[in-house]
């Protein structure tokens, strides 16, 4: 195994630090939106939109993933023609600018449906930028690393996606706690978007001082760069075969494991289990904190034992354990079950009323907080609608629950189960950058690896929250019905990867 001298180690440490910081900030920018989907939905759509506001907001969130492959094609081609450094400098500027502008867009109450349309446009710009960022950063680091250390060094880039999510959650929770829930829901949600411009400025300054990849520089000096990276990547049969294998045998399954374990877990706990806003995010923050070091563990291990079975094992464990895990989430947070335990106290009701003039209805809302012997609490919300006309008055009453908090034991069990899901993320994601880089030749590497990564991770994976939430809303479905999408995709990818990928450190493929 090649050994790095002190100067080389110092050099690659700077390369990893500079690449990782920029990529972390891009992921932060990209994921703020998903972390605030419920609040943003109330801002972008009419107040009476109900559940459709969340589904429409998740659809806008998903749109950013759908265009990531197009970003991979555009910026991958630029990266293979003009170099890695300046291409992902450009993607950083686009991402930071569009994220900042999302924080400035007026709400639906001010400009109507222009609000979600403008956010959708900026979300598409974000997706295009991210489509060009990851491939450049992973390629840049891999081309500085010696062959026997690629899994280890590129795994640091792999941590940035989860750390970007961690940073976005931390900024969101901190801002909400400082401003208070009401101010945060009204205007404070914009602050995490606006802060991104400062982070991007720092990263641009650092990246401007970076040098081009030595492998690409050598190729360019020898006049061997590709004249048409797109044509060489997708019209040459041997290379296109590698693109398809990377997509269907690895990145597709990796993508659904990634977004189920981190985004859908949070969405499910908040929207299905009705956990308190902060509680659901603290759970994910703890899980990410404990699991993140394993990106480097599994990336380094893949240098020794190969990439294949580490990635496929993560997929298989998700296939087996997702339904039992999410069933526990439901059982542990079911308010009906809570009510079987002894109540310690019930707060005085907080009553509000609203008159709906066009329907001549009066809506009376009563909210009480119930504290249980187990240590958990929840809000019981009773809504009475009084219909009035000249001759008839009728009364309707609906009861719902919200802002569930958990007993200490249940809280840590759920953290453990989310940690397990993020651990699976580290298994599938830690080795995959080295796997993809080593599949393709240098002159078309940026283009060839970016496309399957962003289709698998961005489209198949990024659609998990939207598709799973949509499927679970169908008549006759159960809260677990949405899990069949990630389980099915992971199962298909597992079978293809098990049959066609060789378990070698250099990711060679069977003929």
From TrEMBL:
UniProt cross-references to InterPro entries, sorted A to Z: MFS_dom (IPR020846), MFS_sugar_transport-like (IPR005828), MFS_trans_sf (IPR036259), Sugar_transporter_CS (IPR005829)
Residue ranges of domain Major facilitator superfamily (MFS) profile in the record: 15-505
Compartments, as annotated in UniProt: Cell membrane
Membrane disposition: Multi-pass membrane protein
A single GO cellular-component term on record: plasma membrane
PANTHER family: MAJOR FACILITATOR SUPERFAMILY TRANSPORTER (PTHR43045:SF7), SHIKIMATE TRANSPORTER (PTHR43045)
Designated name of the protein: MFS transporter, MHS family, proline/betaine transporter
Native source organism of the sequence: Dyadobacter koreensis
């Amino acid at each position: 195994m090649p050994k790095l001298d002190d100067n080389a180690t110092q050099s690659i440490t700077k390369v990893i630090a500079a690449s990782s910081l920029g990529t972390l900030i891009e992921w932060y920018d990209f994921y703020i939106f998903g972390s605030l989907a419920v609040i943003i939905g109330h801002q972008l759509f009419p107040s009476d939109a109900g559940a459709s506001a969340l589904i429409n907001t998740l659809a806008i969130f998903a749109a950013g993933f759908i265009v990531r492959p197009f970003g991979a094609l555009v910026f991958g081609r630029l990266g293979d023609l003009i170099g890695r450094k300046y291409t992902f400098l450009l993607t950083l500027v686009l991402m930071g600018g569009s994220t900042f502008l999302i924080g400035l867009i007026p709400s639906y109450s001010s400009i109507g449906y222009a609000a979600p349309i403008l956010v959708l446009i900026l979300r598409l710009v974000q997706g295009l930028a991210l489509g060009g960022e990851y491939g450049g950063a992973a390629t840049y680091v891999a081309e500085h690393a010696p062959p026997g250390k690629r899994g280890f060094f590129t795994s640091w880039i792999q941590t940035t996606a989860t750390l970007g999510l961690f940073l976005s959650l931390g900024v969101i929770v901190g801002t909400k706690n400082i401003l208070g829930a009401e101010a945060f829901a009204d205007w404070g949600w914009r602050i995490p978007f606006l802060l991104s411009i400062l982070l991007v400025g720092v990263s641009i300054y650092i990246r401007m001082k970076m040098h081009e990849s030595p492998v690409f520089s050598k190729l360019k000096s020898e006049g061997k760069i590709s004249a048409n990276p797109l044509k060489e990547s997708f019209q040459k049969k041997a290379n296109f075969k590698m693109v398809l294998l990377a997509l269907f045998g690895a990145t597709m399954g990796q993508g659904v494991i990634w977004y189920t374990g981190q985004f859908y877990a949070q969405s499910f706990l908040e929207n299905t289990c009705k956990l308190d806003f902060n509680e659901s995010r603290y759970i994910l923050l703890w899980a990410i904190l404990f699991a993140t070091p394993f990106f480097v563990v599994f990336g380094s291990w893949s240098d020794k034992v190969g990439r294949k079975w580490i990635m496929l094992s993560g997929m298989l464990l998700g296939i087996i354990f997702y339904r039992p895990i999410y069933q526990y989430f439901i059982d542990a947070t079911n308010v009906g079950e809570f009510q079987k335990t002894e109540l310690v106290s019930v707060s005085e009701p907080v009553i509000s009323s609203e008159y709906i003039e066009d329907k001549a209805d009066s809506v009376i809302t009563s909210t009480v907080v119930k504290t249980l012997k187990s240590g958990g609490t929840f809000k019981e919300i009773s809504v009475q609608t009084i219909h009035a006309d000249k001759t008839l008055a009728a009364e309707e009453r609906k009861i719902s629950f919200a802002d569930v908090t958990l007993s200490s034991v249940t809280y840590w069990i759920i953290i453990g189960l989310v940690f397990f899901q993020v651990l699976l993320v580290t298994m599938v994601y830690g080795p995959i950058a080295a796997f993809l880089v080593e599949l393709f030749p240098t002159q078309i590497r940026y283009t060839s690896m970016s496309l399957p990564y962003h289709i698998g991770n961005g489209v198949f994976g990024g659609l998990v929250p939207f598709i799973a939430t949509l499927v679970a809303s169908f008549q006759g479905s159960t809260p677990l019905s949405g899990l069949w999408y990630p389980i099915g995709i992971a199962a298909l990818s597992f079978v293809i990867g098990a049959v066609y990928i060789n378990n070698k450190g250099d990711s060679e493929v069977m003929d």
